[in-house]
């Protein structure tokens, strides 16, 4: 098995920045690439780590990275194009190329790649909120050394690896989570209950510190809206959920990442003791 030293993160958004920070603190060399100068500047201001290399132009990126993790928006065409570029740009023969996709299957994502055998899905939840599991999902052509490499790397950055035994949309937790979210949104869309009351019901009965709509805020309303859209061919009733989300996303209410979603941050009301009293 190769020795992992250098990591490249493709996409300087919220999750990409979190992964970069974990890898940096784990003792790895880290480079972040994004075509948006604004995204890179935001990542710099949040991370404040001089040891991380921020790249606006691809020529700035080292070609010999050991693990490359794509963290761009949840759009199939975009991810395929980015992964095709990654496949051609990073020249190390045993490089591990990963997608942080929360929904798409690895065999679908790698269709434009040549080295499909060096690819798999590598799905982080939200480390900043103590969601410590990282999903490792292979496809039929993934080389057998990759699960071991990613399992060790995941442990080295302080998270828990979870290898999915076969391709499955939504992995494990997200598959369950999507159903909870769908039913919660259905209750809100029909006017049966409000997001706050639904969360309160969930939190009281499960003894959890957060409810479904609080979790949507963590993931990002735009991201969940994209997931609902991707599932639309199989779940046509998702159109009502998508319309519901657009009332918020059109107002740039995207969740915790920009301070306002179903709740206002910091200090959302569901974190106050009086919320479930």
Q: What do you see in this structure?
A:
The protein has 277 residues and is of the alpha/beta class. The protein folds into 2 domains: 6-164, Rossmann fold (3-Layer(aba) Sandwich), CATH 3.40.50.720; 173-276, N-(1-d-carboxylethyl)-l-norvaline Dehydrogenase, domain 2 (Orthogonal Bundle), CATH 1.10.1040. Helices cover 40% and strands 13% of the residues. It contains 10 helices and 8 strands. It has helices at residues 14-25, 37-47, 76-89, 106-109, 146-156, 173-189, 195-206, 212-219, 221-230, 238-249; strands spanning 6-10, 29-33, 53-55, 67-70, 96-99, 119-124, 133-137, 160-164. An 8-stranded mixed β-sheet has the order 3-2-1-4-5-6-7-8, sandwiched between helices. α6 crosses α10 (238-249) and α9 (221-230) packs antiparallel against α10. The radius of gyration is 19 Å and the shape is globular. The chain starts with 5 loop residues before the first strand and ends in a 28-residue tail after the last helix. The mean pLDDT is 93.
How many structural domains does the protein architecture include?
2
Q: Which sheet architecture does the biggest sheet show?
A: 8 strands, mixed
According to CATH, what is the topology of the largest domain?
A: Rossmann fold
Q: Report the structural category.
A: alpha/beta
Roughly what is the average pLDDT, rounded to an integer? 93
State the helicity in percent bands.
40-55%
Q: pLDDT below 50 for ≥5 consecutive residues: which ranges? A: none
Distance between the termini: 54 Å
Number of helices: 10
Note the run of SSEs as H and E.
EHEHEEHEHEEHEHHHHH
CATH homologous superfamily name of the largest domain? NAD(P)-binding Rossmann-like Domain
Spatial strand arrangement across the major sheet? 3-2-1-4-5-6-7-8
User: What is the correct CATH architecture of the largest domain?
Assistant: 3-Layer(aba) Sandwich
